[in-house]
C-alpha cells in the first residue's frame, strides 16, 4: 500500500522511525554527590525558556546559582517545539512554492535534515556550555524540592542542596493525553508533538487531535508534504480561545492545503490506529495528540504549592508562590502566556526582584502567534475575556485583502487566496485598545505594534492618527482604528 512505502522509505533514510525522542543529551556539569550539602544564593529547577535565561542573568550579576536539569539543557523550545516547528513550516512553504518540481518524499527528507541541523540534532552541549560560561553551576539530575532543600538524583548518585535567597521553579508543562478509550501515551502509532518534530517519518494518513497552535501548525506542515491530514477539533472552531472568525479563517486556509478539518468532533475510541469519532470510524497511519499541556509538578509535591484548575502554579505579580518571598514559579508551570517570550518576560521579572529592582510582571502585551501561512497574531483581550472581566467592548474589523499591498501581491500571484483580516477590540468606555486579532501573510510581523499598543494602553484615537507605511499590510489597521475612533469619540 502506498502509505506504507512512504513510511518505509523515509525511515530508511535517517533511521529514526517512531521511537520516542532521541536521548542525545550532552555531558557537562556536576554530579549530585559532588555538590551534596552545598548552599547557593539561588537554585533554579528546569533550564527551559524560563529557567535558563534567569540562571544566566543572576550568575552574570555575581550570585552563586545552581541550575538543575533532568533532560535537555534549554528545555523543549530549541529542540522539539518552537524551533523545529518553525523550520518545518518554512521548508513546507518553500516546498509549496516549488509546485510539483520536487517530489514530496525528497522535499520532506530535506526538510528533516535542515530541521535536525537547526536543532543541533537535539544535542544540548552548546546550551550547557553557554550556561557554564555565564557562571551558572549545572547539575544533571531530577530535583525533588522540599521546604528544607532540594534533593538531587541522577542514575548513580544523590545529594541535597540548599538555597539562601531563592528557589525558582521552572519545570514547564507536558502534553496531555485525553481520556479517550484505547488512547495511550507511547502506544504504537500515537505521537505527541515531541515525536512529530523529531521523526523522519512522513505518514501517508495523519490524524491530529486538537485544533490549537500545534494542531494548526503541524497540519500545515504535514499536508504540504503530501500526508492526508484529518484535523479533529472538539470545539466549534479552531484556535477556540481566540475570536471565532480567526479559527474560521484558519480552517479555510488549512482546507486550501487539503486538510480535512472537522470541528465540533469528539474522538470516542482508538483501536491501534483506527479511530472512531461521534460520526464515523476510519483508519490512519499515525495519530498526533495535541490537546494542550499540563504543568509538570512531579518533584514539587512536598512544597504544597497552591494550584489552579488546570494544575497551574498560582503566582503573585512578582511570580512568588504561596505568599512566600523566597519561592518563585515561572514559565509554562504557571500557564500564564505559555510561550517562550512569556517565559522570558517572567524570568526578567524574577531577576529584577532578586537583583534589587523589583517590579510587577505585565502580561498584557504578550503576543500569541501561530506561524502558519497566513499567520495568526493576537494580543490582549478577546470579546469573551473582556466580558468575563466585566469590560464593555467595541470592535471593528478590516479585510486586509483590500490593502494596496494585497493587490500588488495578488497581481503577481493570482492564485493567492490566503485569507487576511484584522480586528481591533477597544474598551467602549475609555477608548483604550485592549485587544487585537489578525490573520494574514507575516501577520506576526506587521501586527506586532498592536502588542505594544495594548500594553501601553494606547487609545483608538492615537492608533487612528498613527501613519502606517504605504503599501504595507499594516495599513489594515487604519480602517478599524478610524471606525472605532469615530464611534468612541
Ligand atoms: C510544538 C510546540 C511549538 C511551540 N512553538 C512556540 C513558538 O513558536 N513560540 C513560542 O513562544 N512558544 C512556542 N511553544 C511554547 C514554548 O515551547 C514553551 O512556552 C516554553 O518552551 C516553556 O518554557 P519552560 O521553561 O516553561 O518549560 P520547558 O522548556 O519545558 O523547560 C522545563 C525544564 O524543566 C525540566 N524539569 C522538569 N522537572 C524537573 C525536575 N523535577 N528536575 C529537574 N528538571 C526538571 C525539564 O526537563 C525541562 O527541560 C511551543 C510549544 C510546542 C510544544
Ligand atoms: N506558535 C506558538 O506560539 C505555539 C505553537 C505550538 C504550540 N504552542 C504552545 O504549546 C502548548 C500546547 O499546544 P496545543 O496546541 O496542544 O494546545 P492548545 O491549548 O493551544 O490547543 C488545544 C486544542 O485542543 C482542543 N481540544 C481539547 N481537548 C480536545 C479533545 N479531546 N479532542 C479534540 N480537541 C480537543 C482545544 O479546543 C484546543 O483548541 C500551548 O501552550 C501552545 O500555546 C505555541
What does it look like?
Residues 40-337 form the FAD/NAD(P)-binding domain. By secondary structure, this protein is α/β, with parallel strands linked by helices. It has three domains: 3-80 and 117-175 and 294-354, FAD/NAD(P)-binding domain (3-Layer(bba) Sandwich); 177-291, FAD/NAD(P)-binding domain (3-Layer(bba) Sandwich); 368-488, FAD/NAD-linked reductase, C-terminal dimerisation domain (Enolase-like, domain 1, 2-Layer Sandwich), CATH 3.30.390. It contains 16 helices and 22 strands. Strands 1, 2, 3, 4, 5, 6 and 17 form a seven-stranded mixed beta sheet that branches. The chain has a five-stranded parallel beta sheet with strand order 8-15-9-10-11. It has a five-stranded antiparallel beta sheet with strand order 18-19-22-21-20, with helices on both faces. The longest helix is centred in the first third of the chain and has 16 residues, at 82-97. It is globular, with a radius of gyration of 24 Å. The termini are far apart. Mean pLDDT is 94; it is low at 1-24. It binds flavin-adenine dinucleotide and nicotinamide-adenine-dinucleotide. Flavin-adenine dinucleotide binds at residues 45-51, 68-72, 75-77, 81-82, 85-86, 142-143, 170-172, 193, 197, 214, 296, 299, 331-333, 338-341, 343, 371.
Amino acid at each position: 500500500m502506498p502509505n506504507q512505502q512512504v513510511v518505509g522509505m523515509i525511515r530508511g533514510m535517517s533511521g529514526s522511525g517512531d521511537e520516542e525522542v532521541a536521548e542525545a543529551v550532552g555531558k557537562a556539569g556536576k554530579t549530585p554527590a559532588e555538590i551534596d550539602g552545598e548552599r547557593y544564593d539561588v537554585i533554579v529547577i528546569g533550564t527551559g525558556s524560563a529557567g535558563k535565561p534567569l540562571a544566566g542573568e543572576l550568575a552574570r550579576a555575581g550570585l552563586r546559582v545552581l541550575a538543575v536539569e533532568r533532560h535537555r539543557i534549554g528545555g523543549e523550545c530549541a529542540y522539539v517545539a518552537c524551533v523545529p516547528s518553525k523550520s518545518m513550516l518554512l521548508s513546507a512553504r518553500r516546498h509549496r512554492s516549488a509546485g510539483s518540481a520536487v517530489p514530496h518524499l525528497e522535499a520532506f527528507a530535506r526538510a528533516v535534515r535542515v530541521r535536525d541541523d537547526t536543532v543541533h540534532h537535539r544535542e544540548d552541549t552548546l546550551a550547557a556550555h553557554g550556561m557554564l560560561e555565564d557562571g551558572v553551576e549545572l547539575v544533571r539530575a531530577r530535583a525533588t524540592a522540599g521546604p528544607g532543600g532540594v534533593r538531587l538524583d541522577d542514575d548513580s548518585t544523590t545529594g541535597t542542596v540548599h538555597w539562601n535567597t531563592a528557589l525558582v521553579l521552572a519545570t514547564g508543562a507536558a502534553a496531555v493525553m485525553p481520556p479517550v478509550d484505547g488512547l495511550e501515551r507511547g502506544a504504537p502509532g500515537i505521537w505527541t508533538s515531541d515525536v512529530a518534530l523529531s521523526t523522519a517519518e512522513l505518514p501517508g494518513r495523519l490524524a491530529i487531535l486538537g485544533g490549537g497552535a500545534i494542531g494548526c501548525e503541524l497540519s500545515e506542515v504535514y499536508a504540504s508534504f503530501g500526508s492526508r491530514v484529518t484535523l479533529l477539533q472538539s470545539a466549534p472552531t479552531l484556535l477556540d480561545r481566540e475570536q471565532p472568525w480567526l479559527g474560521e479563517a484558519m480552517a479555510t486556509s488549512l482546507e486550501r492545503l487539503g486538510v480535512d478539518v472537522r470541528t465540533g468532533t469528539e474522538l470516542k475510541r482508538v483501536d491501534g490506529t483506527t479511530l472512531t469519532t461521534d460520526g464515523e470510524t476510519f483508519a490512519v497511519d499515525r495519530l498526533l495528540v495535541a490537546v494542550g499541556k499540563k504543568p509538570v509538578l512531579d518533584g514539587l509535591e512536598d512544597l504544597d504549592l497552591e494550584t489552579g484548575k488546570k494544575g497551574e502554579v498560582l503566582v503573585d505579580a512578582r511570580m512568588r508562590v504561596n505568599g512566600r518571598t523566597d519561592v518563585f514559579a515561572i514559565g509554562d508551570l504557571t500557564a500564564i502566556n505559555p510561550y517562550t517570550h512569556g517565559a522570558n518576560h517572567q524570568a526578567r521579572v524574577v531577576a529584577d526582584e532578586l537583583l534589587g529592582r523589583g517590579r510587577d510582571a505585565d502580561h498584557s502585551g504578550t503576543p500569541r502567534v501561530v506561524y502558519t501561512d497566513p499567520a495568526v497574531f493576537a494580543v490582549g483581550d478577546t470579546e469573551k475575556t473582556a466580558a468575563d472581566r466585566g469590560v464593555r467592548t467595541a470592535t471593528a474589523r478590516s479585510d486586509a485583502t483590500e490593502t494596496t499591498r494585497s493587490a500588488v501581491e495578488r497581481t503577481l500571484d493570482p492564485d493567492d487566496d490566503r485569507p487576511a483580516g484584522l480586528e481591533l477590540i477597544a474598551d467602549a468606555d475609555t477608548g483604550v485598545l485592549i485587544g487585537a486579532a489578525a490573520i494574514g501573510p507575516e501577520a506576526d510581523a506587521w501586527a506586532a505594534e498592536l502588542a505594544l499598543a495594548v500594553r501601553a494602553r494606547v487609545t483608538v484615537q492615537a492608533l487612528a492618527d498613527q501613519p502606517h507605511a504605504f503599501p504595507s499590510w499594516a495599513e489594515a489597521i487604519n480602517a478599524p482604528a478610524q471606525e472605532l475612533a469615530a464611534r468612541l469619540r
